[in-house]
Specification:
Number of helices: 6
Strand order of the largest sheet: 1-2
Shape: flat
Order of helices and strands: HHHHHHEE
Distance between the termini: 63 Å
CATH architecture: Up-down Bundle
CATH class: Mainly Alpha
Number of domains: 1
Radius of gyration: 22 Å
Length: 173
């Protein structure tokens, strides 16, 4: 294997590869803040489940301790994964969908997205219900602005998810 690496390094020095410049984003026009909202609901739900998880008693069996540890690890991993999904979805909207004219029309947009990304970081770092609810509030605010830029009215309603929190939806028809 070392011989192969040495050969490839030598070839690269003799004939280096050209740098490729490409833009991989496809302007498909299909954007939606829904995934960020769903991710925020998931973070809220994981925080709720962590809070409801009963710690094993001092006399708990090894199996009970293992079950607790497994559930806690899974809830935390899911909370962190969905905090990152939230951030990714907002970054895509910010970088690919929102244009300078949207920021002119909604001057709070830049600060809102920045704060929402910071809230998601806090959602990852902590088991904090207020922080996860703030993520949803900000995702709903981004959704309201997003749909306004498309000329689509919105409405807020209690979500059908176990979180029971309000979500902003596009009003179609």
């Amino acid at each position: 294997m070392a011989l192969l690496h040495s050969l490839l390094r030598t070839l690269d020095r003799v004939s280096p590869a050209k740098v490729a410049y490409a833009h991989c984003d496809i302007p498909c026009g299909i954007y939606d803040p829904h995934h960020a909202q769903m991710a925020a609901h998931t973070v809220i739900r994981m925080v709720d489940l962590i809070g409801q998880l009963e710690k094993p008693a001092a006399n708990a069996t090894p199996e009970q301790r293992q079950e607790y540890t497994n559930k806690l690890a899974r809830y935390i991993a899911t909370k962190e994964q969905h905090s990152e999904i939230y951030k990714t979805e907002l970054r895509v909207l910010w970088a690919d969908y929102f244009k300078p004219e949207h920021v002119q029309q909604f001057p709070q947009l830049h600060d809102l997205v920045w704060k929402a990304l910071k809230s998601a970081s806090k959602g990852r770092q902590e088991i904090n219900l207020a922080a996860s609810e703030e993520m949803l509030r900000q995702a709903n605010e981004v959704a309201t602005i997003f749909w306004k830029t498309k000329g689509v009215p919105t409405y807020a309603a209690k979500s059908p998810y176990p979180t029971g929190r309000e979500t902003v939806y596009p009003k179609i028809g």
